[in-house]
Automatic annotation (TrEMBL):
Keywords: ATP-binding, Glycolysis, Kinase, Magnesium, Metal-binding, Nucleotide-binding, Pyruvate, Transferase. Oligomer of alpha and beta subunits. Residues 101-432 form the Pyruvate kinase barrel domain. GO terms for cellular component: chloroplast stroma. Pathway: Carbohydrate degradation; glycolysis; pyruvate from D-glyceraldehyde 3-phosphate: step 5/5. This is Pyruvate kinase. One of its GO terms (molecular function) is ATP binding. The lineage of its organism: Eukaryota, Viridiplantae, Streptophyta, Embryophyta, Tracheophyta. Belongs to the pyruvate kinase family. Its cofactor is K(+); Mg(2+). InterPro entries: Pyr_Knase (IPR001697), Pyrv/PenolPyrv_kinase-like_dom (IPR015813), Pyrv_kinase-like_dom_sf (IPR040442), Pyrv_Knase-like_insert_dom_sf (IPR011037), Pyrv_Knase_brl (IPR015793), Pyrv_Knase_insert_dom_sf (IPR015806). Its EC number is 2.7.1.40. Pfam families: PK.
Length: 492
């Protein structure tokens, strides 16, 4: 029981101001209400005394929003013990309350992880949210994944939430005629075309989903595939066919996004008229509402308007629904209208993949820092996504640089980290998740002990969250803590 002596720590102080993000996953999957899935940890005197000690001993720690909300959501004090979901139970046993993870982990589900046992392995490994990306797969495929996650929750006591991510109407490639990927070599000529190709398709041809593509591009333009992971130069236009020479070789993946640059600037007029939510996206959203997903993430958000529209739509379609809308920050427009978008949304995602094609790569870290900080200030959960552990798609060990990147996102106090290809189609999904988990726990411990994480301004009680009583109580408790402990900063 020595572990339990560390239960409830400063960073776990009830300072959360975030009712929606992780809590929903647990209330929606009320593990604690299901007799066959109840997990109960008996409260020993030391544990209960620590629970009691929390209010007087704990020092608020800035953002423990998700962590505290997560713990509260995952815990329910019963007559004989605390009931928790299976993931929290495992973490409590392993780490004690003191270092139970606050950073939530999201896994994109794809061919590598869609089986029941694979999903279970991810849940055991700490997956809090399963993300399905509507760019890929059929609705039936996604429905099967949702059913499996629900079954895991019902039968095995997990509390994994579902996030549906829209395709968006940005320009992207079609599939690769069934191939999982296609390798491009330096100097090769590839044809990008709006024509439909028969089977077998001609070599080195790629479909483009946007009819105006050939008219919009100019010879000399630079074509970035998948956020710039592969690059081409447009060399010739022949009717609907655009011939391109590969300048930065790499792997083409199905449905990869395409971005055009001309004379050093992003070409955005071409698709400025395309709606953020396409007609296909609306059908997917109807599907998500019918399936009762927990989060809908909207790709390439440009303004708050689309978020407000979607929220009204959800409210009208799904009365009493608590589906949260996450704005994906992955375009120049989203950065221009950052604050209004975040205010309108239930949370944001720093979608670094496409963002890295829209702004110079070296500006992505500062954009991430800005978005995360703003979300912290506005009390909105924020996800850091894309390429966190990209090398683990192929290798079982991350690079040091990847570990440093994950650490930095945790230190910035992102609420959640997301795996994309690493879990969807990589060779080591469980290992990648384990890295996110161990790095999160380690960095959280470090900041707790060294008090070295990102400083944060507290919102004024009562102005931003007039309707959120629990948040106000917690903020007030934090302020009392501050005055009681004088020198202890609220934002240490
Ligand atoms: N439902 C799916 N079916 C097949 N492949 C998928 C699925 N979801 C993701 N993938 C694969 O995982 C890769 C990374 O996922 P993600 O980052 O979500 O997609 P993208 O980069 O296309 O937006 C995709 O390029 C695709 O190869
Ligand atoms: C998360 C992202 O979006 P998607 O994977 O849907 O392209 C991204 O671009 O970083
Ligand atoms: K998407
Ligand atoms: Mg994207």
């Amino acid at each position: 029981m020595s572990q339990s002596l560390q239960f409830i720590t400063p960073s776990r102080a009830p300072y959360f101001t975030l009712p929606k993000f992780p809590r929903r996953s647990c209330t929606r999957f009320p593990v604690i209400n299901l007799p066959n899935t109840k997990r109960s940890i008996t409260i020993t005197p030391s544990l209960s005394s620590f629970l009691h000690a929390t209010s007087s001993r704990s020092l608020p720690s800035g953002n423990s929003q998700t962590g505290a909300a997560g713990v509260v959501s995952a815990l329910s004090v019963g007559a004989t013990g605390i009931e928790v979901d299976a993931v929290t139970e495992a973490e409590l046993k392993e780490n004690g309350f003191r270092s139970t993870r606050r950073t939530k982990l999201i896994c994109t589900i794809g061919p590598a992880t869609c089986g029941f046992e694979q999903l279970e392995a991810l849940a055991v490994g700490g997956m809090n949210v399963a993300r399905i990306n509507m760019c890929h797969g059929s609705r039936e495929w996604h429905q099967t994944v949702i059913e499996r996650v629900r079954r895991l929750n019902d039968e095995k006591g997990f509390a994994v939430a579902i996030m549906m991510d829209t395709e968006g109407s940005e320009i992207h490639m079609g599939d690769l005629g069934g191939a999982a990927s296609a390798k491009t070599e330096d100097g090769e000529i590839w044809t990008f075309s709006v024509r439909a190709f028969g089977t077998p398709r001609p070599e080195r041809t790629i479909n483009v989903n946007y009819d105006g593509f050939a008219e919009d591009v100019k010879v000399g333009d630079e074509l970035l595939v998948d956020g710039g992971m592969v690059r081409f130069e447009v060399t010739e236009k022949i009717g609907p066919d655009v011939k391109c020479r590969c300048t930065d070789p790499g792997l083409l993946l199905p449905q990869a996004n395409l971005t055009l640059w001309r004379n050093g600037s992003l070409v955005s007029e071409r698709n400025a008229m395309l709606p953020t939510i396409s007609s296909k996206d609306w059908l997917d959203i109807d599907f998500g509402i019918a399936e009762g997903v927990d989060f809908i993430a909207i790709s390439f958000v440009k303004s708050a308007e689309v978020i407000n529209h979607l929220k009204s739509y959800i409210a009208a379609r799904a009365c009493g629904s608590e589906i949260a809308v996450i704005a994906k920050m992955e375009s120049v427009d989203s950065l221009k209208n950052l604050e209004e978008i975040i205010q309108a949304s239930d949370g944001a995602m720093v979608a670094r993949g496409d963002l890295g094609a829209q702004i110079p790569l070296e500006q992505v870290p500062s954009a991430q820092q800005k978005i995360v900080q703003l979300c912290r200030q506005l009390n909105k959960p924020v996800i850091v996504a894309s390429q966190l552990l990209e090398s683990m798609i192929e290798y079982p060990t991350p690079t040091r640089a990847e570990v440093a990147d994950v650490s930095e996102a945790v230190r910035q106090r992102a609420d959640a980290l997301m795996l994309s290809g690493e879990s969807a189609m990589g060779q080591y999904p469980e290992k990648a998740l384990a890295v996110l988990r161990s790095v999160s726990v380690r960095i959280e411990k470090w900041w707790r002990e060294e008090k070295c994480h990102e400083a944060m301004e507290l919102p004024d009680v009562g102005t931003l969250f007039a309707d959120s009583i629990s948040e106000e109580i917690c903020n007030s408790a934090a302020k009392i803590g501050k005055s009681a402990f004088g020198s202890v900063s609220l934002s240490h």
